[in-house]
């Protein structure tokens, strides 16, 4: 059976690509449902894009690569699409847009779009073999127990990254890219919680507070959450994409830089109180208790010189921690690295050395921040390949 285009992966990027590639396109997925990551994303409401998308919100060995696709299919284009389908949405915070109802509406919309464009969707279909063929490519696919031999002119790699293998993530796009000599960049888990030895933060599990998390490469002002295994929350997930094994991170527990002035003022009226009592008005009390294990917080406020208060506040603004690792692909929202963008056209996503071969979405070395940026990349890169095909 010949198809003009076969897209591997009925996720965000693959279905978007099919909606533009149109008739003569087949989308294959080994899962029993399309768009499973869309369905579970954003706590079931899918943070489908962001009001403020810029190339600076993406990590890649080539930071310029994402510009063309993002400029040609913007967040406004996607908002227009979902509005056409009557899907209600709202901004939660920091420009992040979510469905009012359910993420399933986005999946249903993409399936409807690809079908109305004339594309076909096969689920429960595992790719057994891919080869070069006179027409372009040949594939052997096990579709619900039956071996199907397919040929196509264009093959689109859209099977995503390695994150959450339990949900069916595989390295198929990487394997096929390698088979056709496209270079790969090392992959690692991104947007993922940090772990620490000996359940260091277990006594604080569940405590959350605003923070600034930084390292030499990046800094994020967002919430920090202590967990049984370590640190999580938006600030941590964001920084994890910029972190390398063995490095320190800096946690600023006073991102608004208010502690020093507040404590100084309190010293005049509440001088007999202990530091930890005053700090517990400004930070979660369990955290103050925990910090008291290493900082002299049982001293009286009146006994603190300005210098002593400065030193204390400086410690709280630069709490150095060394994660032992991350939770890895088991819980990571994304995979960093992947198919090297130098091997692809930034306009069409087609491989420079293998005409007819395309790579889109998370399989490519373009990774967004937390906040709807990864879906926007999936929509934009899927659109770029779809219109080019
Ligand atoms: P995606 O993973 O969506 O799709 C790949 C498809 O390929 C899947 O359907 C899979 O079954 C299929 N496949 C894999 N291997 C195959 C094989 N061997 N044979 C056949 N098919 C195969 N992003 C964001 O912007 N906002 C958000 O709210 C969230 N939330 C979120 C929550 C969680 C828990 C996770 C894990 C991730 C997110 N993300 C996110 C990230 C976002 O889900 C991700 O970046 C996109 O889904 C990537 O789209 P792709 O189409 O590239 O891959």
TrEMBL record:
It comes from Epibacterium ulvae. This is Flavoprotein, HI0933 family. Residues 188-334 form the RsdA/BaiN/AoA(So)-like insert domain. Residues 4-387 form the RsdA/BaiN/AoA(So)-like Rossmann fold-like domain. InterPro entries: BaiN-like (IPR004792), BaiN-like_dom_sf (IPR023166), FAD/NAD-bd_sf (IPR036188), RsdA/BaiN/AoA(So)-like_dom (IPR055178), RsdA/BaiN/AoA(So)_Rossmann (IPR057661). The lineage of its organism: Bacteria, Pseudomonadati, Pseudomonadota, Alphaproteobacteria, Rhodobacterales. SUPFAM superfamilies: FAD/NAD(P)-binding domain, HI0933 insert domain-like. Its cofactor is FAD. Coiled coil: none annotated.
